[in-house]
Design a protein that fits this description.
Blueprint: H1 9-15, H2 18-34, E1 40-44, E2 47-52, E3 66-73, E4 78-82, H3 83-87, H4 89-101, E5 112-115, H5 123-130, H6 135-146
Antiparallel strand pairs: 1-2, 2-3, 3-4, 4-5
Helix pairs in contact: 2-5
Amino acid sequence: MAKNNAQTVEEYLEELPEYRRDTIKEIRELILDHLPDGYEETINWGMISYEIPLEKYPDTYNNQPLSYLGLAAQENHNSLYLMPVYQDEELEEWLEEEFKKANKKMDMGRSCLRFQTVNDLPLNAISKIVSHQTPDEFIETYEETRK
């Protein structure tokens, strides 16, 4: 499912094929269980997005809410976008080690972790990344990387 026209998370999930829906729902629940207060779950960029609303932080380079995480069902895989990992080389190295410890193969671009099922992910490590930064901490890191 490369293109999704959903306006709400519920619509997004409903449009997914069942075999994708269950996986996305399970990762979404993990995110919601560990996400620090202050992030907002929305649909943005054609995916489920966890972001800092413009009302809290309007000074972004693209005039869009500051994205912390994203979750999407793509055409050939699912994607979990982890901006904290993108901004922190040590966190990325830690995540690589967690994949190795769990005997799982890490398939990651700059911030996009590609997977087929929840069994492809070290869920404890993912939950730690989700809870890694409060919105204020994420804003501070974002501002540092923009310098």
